[in-house]
Amino acid sequence: MLMSRLARRGPLVMRLVLTPKILPDADSYNVIADWPGSDKAGEIVVVSGHLDSWDLATGAHDDAAGVASAMAVFETLKKLDYRPRRTIRMIAWMNEENGTRGARAYLDSVAANPASHVGAIESDSGAGRPFGLHASVPAASTPLFAPLQAALQPIGAGVFQRQDALATGDLSGLERAGVPSFAPLIDNSTYFNYHHTAADTLDKVDPDNLRRHVAVMTATAWFLANIEEPVGRAVVPASFSR
Ligand SMILES: [Zn+2]
């Protein structure tokens, strides 16, 4: 806004001092927890967020909200005494922000058998109010999700938006390998006031919206972990590249 005001008075000259540098690689780790399924334990549903954040603040919206709601899937299902048929795998991805290196390492580790993954969920659009889900499932699978939509409708999160590919963040490699991807559909109208800034702290997170995130992540994970047949492999458009 300052720049546009000054530019109206005539040519604008700026001097920028940029200090970032690329340092040598160092070890870091994804954090992974499995809750083994019962009769379909060999099939995996990933629930996830990313562990790293920009160093200006604590990253409450980007992406502590995603990690917290993924972790809360286990807590919520255990409180309800529900036991999934498929294995639910919570992943806090390392290094999303600087190249999704954790997600790439994970993909390498499951390269022999990506088909064991029947679905993957990542929340990485802040902690605003969720309205439903984005999903990269085959068009023919969309009707299967009616019960999930009905379950989420009471909190206003019943929208189901199918796309051929979400093509974002940590799940894009799994998606390219045919794993259907899911992400909460979120009101992000204030997200970019906080995202990647010193203002991204917990006081900007609305507790009720965070509870709604937990509900969306938990209901989706439970649905994918228990549906009789997997929802079908993602259709990956030829034009899709990272
Ligand atoms: Zn993020």
Key terms:
single chain; 242 residues; alpha/beta; Aminopeptidase; 7-stranded mixed beta sheet; 19% strand; binds zinc ion
Helix/strand layout:
Blueprint: H1 2-8, E1 31-35, E2 40-50, H2 60-79, E3 86-93, H3 101-109, E4 117-122, E5 130-135, H4 146-152, E6 159-162, H5 172-176, E7 181-186, H6 191-194, H7 207-226
Helix pairs in contact: 2-7
The chain binds zinc ion.
Residues 50, 62-63, 96, 124 line the site of zinc ion.
Question: What's the CATH architecture?
Answer: 3-Layer(aba) Sandwich
Distinct small-molecule ligands in the complex: zinc ion
- Low-pLDDT parts are none
Number of strands: 7
Q: What's the Cα radius of gyration? A: 19 Å
Distance between the termini: 33 Å
Instruction: Please state how the strands of the largest beta sheet are arranged side by side.
Output: 1-3-2-4-7-5-6
Q: What form results from the Cα inertia axes?
A: globular
Instruction: Sketch the topology as an H/E string, one letter per element.
Output: HEEHEHEEHEHEHH
CATH topology: Aminopeptidase
The name of the CATH superfamily reads: Zn peptidases
Sheet with the most strands? 7 strands, mixed
Using the coordinates above, name the CATH class: Alpha Beta
Average pLDDT level: 93
Portion of residues within helices: 25-40%
Q: What is the helix tally? A: 7
The overall number of domains is 1
Strand content: 15-25%
Structural class: alpha/beta
